[in-house]
Amino acid sequence: MVHTSAEAGPAAQALISIVIPCYNEAANLRRGVLDEVIHYLAGQDRPWELVIADDGSSDGSLALCQQFAEAHRGVRVFALPHGGKPAAVYGGICEARGDIVLFTDMDQSTPLAEMAKLLPWFERGYEVVIGSRGLERAGFSLGRRVASRLFRMARGLVLLREINDTQCGFKALRRELAAELFPNLSFFTTQSAHTGWTVSAFDVELLYLAQQWGVSIKEVEVEWHNRDVSTTKGRGKSQFMRESLEMARQVVAILRNRAAGKYRRREQSRC
Questions:
Q1: Quick check: is 109 in a domain?
Q2: Is 227 exposed, middle or buried (0-12, 13-18, 19+ CB in 10 A)?
């Protein structure tokens, strides 16, 4: 069911789909993140829908999301086979019906209200508008801040020099464009099994591919504070090191793909 504000009128602004991937988010769900999301959306004149894509959660997250959807109109929940974060985001995009899709993290470290900073740029002709956490990264440990800065510097030397923050999980795209971009990511074209909350550096490749296709991209600084209380996605230094190594590997893979000419625009079936 899609919510449309009564004040918006039949010829109102384009429908926006909020896509939230979900993997073992029970702790965040129980602290009321979806209540925050729906409270913000309920006050909007723009027509909206909330799409939650569960990535095979094993901690009861799916049931919690389904209960929430039953109690709130405009919310749809889809149970997907486990495939990692990019698969969950893409699965949600495929179910979305809006002209614009915005994907955001369940922990709401970037509050959904920051959406108001992104959407006006679509009216100025941009097709991709992304959130940026700035340089401080509130809530990061000193080690993570240093590692994050090193990653940005290294990535910026070879890819996406004009973009400061590729990894902020708060991005909006034209839905038709998103449906065309995602199937061309290496995450999907390289068949492999994914265990745990596989994040990868899919954001880097997504933005690089969009850039190669001549898509206009706007980066907008948004509020960000680490609010993730989940304990079942993998945390601590070992998880951080695994993610860092995976992101480095992904950037190298992008460079190899670029050298092999794999980022030329291809026509593929969409969602």
A1: yes
A2: middle
Task: List, for residues 16-26, the tens digit of each pLDDT value.
Answer: 999 999 999 99
What residues contact 143, with CB distance under 8 A and at least 6 apart?
237, 240
What would the two tokens of residue 254 be?
């992008």
Does residue 44 lie within any of the structural domains?
Answer: yes
**Sheet containing 128-132: order of strands:** 75-80, 48-55, 16-22, 100-104, 170-174, 128-132, 217-221
Q: What is the mean pLDDT of each run of 10 residues along the chain (271 residues)?
A: 39 82 97 98 96 97 98 97 94 97 97 98 97 70 59 67 90 97 88 58 91 95 90 59 73 88 73 79
As a whole number of angstroms, the distance between CA 219 and CA 164 comes to: 8
Number of H helices, E strands in the chain: 10, 7
At residue 174, the 3 state secondary structure works out as strand
AA letter at 79: A
pTM of the model: 0.85
Distant-in-sequence, close-in-space partners of 176: CB < 8 Å, separation ≥ 6: 270
Rounded Cα distance, 25 and 58, in Å:
9
Reference 227, options 80, 112, 94, 60; nearest CA is 112
Its sign, for the CA torsion 203, 206, 207, 208, is: positive
The identity of residue 135, as a single letter, is L
Query: What domain range is 168 assigned to?
Result: 16-259
Whichever domain contains 227, its CATH number is 3.90.550.10
Is residue 228 in a domain? yes
Three-state secondary structure call for residue 19: strand
260 token code pair: 């092999």
The alpha carbon of residue 242 and the mean position of all alpha carbons in its chain are separated, in whole angstroms, by 20
Q: Quote the crossing angle between the two packed helices 236-259 and 142-158, to the nearest 10°.
A: 0
Chain centre distance of CA 73: 23
| Residue 4 domain flag | no
